[in-house]
Every structure is written in structure tokens, then in C-alpha cells.
Specification:
Blueprint: H1 2-11, H2 19-40, H3 48-55, H4 59-65, H5 69-94, H6 100-115, H7 119-128, H8 134-160, H9 170-189, H10 199-213
Protein name: TetR/AcrR family transcriptional regulator
GO molecular function: DNA-binding transcription factor activity; transcription cis-regulatory region binding
Organism: Nocardia panacis
Length: about 220
């Protein structure tokens, strides 16, 4: 009976919110705080105490709800990447009747419009997430495979329809993702405001790569 009562106490509602709802709200505040702090101060310069103070969450709740600063970073970028991948899939579907090169570029543009929605997001998704730990690198590798699968599938369908010569496309798409990430980093790391590339400029460079790599004349 004591055990059942303990569960009931943990799950009881406060202020009309269940425990699950309170946890979800705290996580959202922590994710929003992480976007602001990781995106302006940087991941390495942001302490758990600073995150908690910004999010108005206790350190105890932080460890219970999130676990670690590393886990919070992954959750933050995962939140953005999930939306970005949905946008890529939607854009590819909307561009089904366009030439394959234009479809691929539209897919990458949709991805960048989400991950680089502002300077904070661009910094977190393309700079701060790099080289943090092996766990984060493993996560990044999996995310690359998810995005690559969307684009490889699109290119392979184009090859089956005779739009482009058939070949192995997975390595090309992975190389292209790496190039796009490097270009996105310039949005954050450029030391001269007049040299900072625009999204249009980045997409033009992507188009050059795509035309060459897919042998589009």
C-alpha cells in the first residue's frame, strides 16, 4: 500500500497539470533556454546552473527530466532536425514534377531554412553540436543517414525514370551534406559581415555541386 501511495503522490496534479505535463513544460523551457544560451554564449561556456536559472527550473528537476547537458543538446538539435526533415520530405513531394537537380536543391534549402532559421539555431545545429562527445557524434551520424535516405531515395527514383544515369548515390549525397554543413557554418563563423553568405548564395553553390555530381547538362 505504501508503494501505491507513493506513486499516487508522484502523479498527483498541481495547478491543474499532471506530472507528465509539468515535466513536458520544464523540458520545453530548458530547450528554449538551451537555444538561447548555446546559440549565443556557446555550449562549452554554458553551465547547467545557468541553463536552470534561465529556464526557471531547479537543478534537481534538470537531472530528473533531462539527465545531462549533452542530452539537452541532443534533444534541442533533434527537435529542430525533426522539423527540418519533415520540411524536406514535403518539399520533395511538392517538387515532384521538377527536374531532379532542382528537387534536390529545394530539399536542401528547406533543411537550411529550418536549421538556420536564425543565427542561434544555425550556431547550435551546425557549429556547437560538432565534436562535443562520441555520443553526440554518433547521434549526428544517424541524423546524416536520415537526411541522406530522403535524398538518396529521390535521386534513385529519378535514375529509374531515366532522368539521370544510374550509379551508387549514397556517397555523393553524404559528401553533399558535408559541403552544405560547411557552408552553413559560414553563416555563423564569417568574421566579416559583408562576407557572410546568404541562403540564396549557399543554394546556388549547392546547385553547382548537384548539377556536376548528377551529370545534369
Amino acid at each position: 500500500m505504501l508503494g501505491e501511495g507513493s506513486v499516487a503522490i508522484r502523479d498527483r496534479s498541481y495547478g491543474g497539470l499532471s506530472r507528465a505535463q509539468r515535466v513536458a513544460r520544464r523540458r520545453t523551457r530548458l530547450l528554449d533556454a538551451a537555444l538561447e544560451l548555446f546559440g549565443t554564449r556557446g555550449y562549452g561556456a554554458t553551465s547547467i546552473e545557468r541553463l536552470c536559472a534561465t529556464a526557471n527550473v531547479s537543478t534537481r528537476s534538470f537531472y530528473e527530466d533531462v539527465g545531462s547537458r549533452e542530452a539537452l543538446l541532443i534533444a534541442l538539435v533533434n527537435r529542430t532536425s525533426a522539423v527540418a526533415n519533415e520540411r524536406v520530405a514535403a518539399e520533395l513531394a511538392a517538387a515532384a514534377d521538377e527536374p531532379i537537380a532542382r528537387r534536390v536543391v529545394r530539399g536542401f534549402r528547406a533543411y537550411l531554412e529550418v536549421t538556420c532559421a536564425d543565427r542561434r539555431s544555425a550556431r547550435v545545429c551546425h557549429v556547437e553540436v560538432v565534436g562535443v562527445s562520441q555520443a553526440v557524434e554518433n547521434w549526428r551520424s544517424e541524423q546524416r543517414r536520415v537526411l541522406a535516405a530522403l535524398l538518396v531515395g529521390e535521386v534513385e527514383r529519378a535514375a529509374r525514370r531515366g532522368e539521370i544515369p544510374p550509379r551508387r548515390f549514397d556517397l555523393f549525397i553524404l559528401a553533399l551534406i558535408g559541403a552544405v554543413s560547411s557552408l552553413a557554418q559560414e553563416l555563423v563563423q564569417s568574421t566579416r559581415p559583408d562576407a557572410e553568405p546568404s541562403l540564396d548564395e549557399i543554394c546556388r553553390e549547392i546547385r553547382y555541386f548537384v548539377d556536376s555530381g548528377l551529370a545534369v547538362g
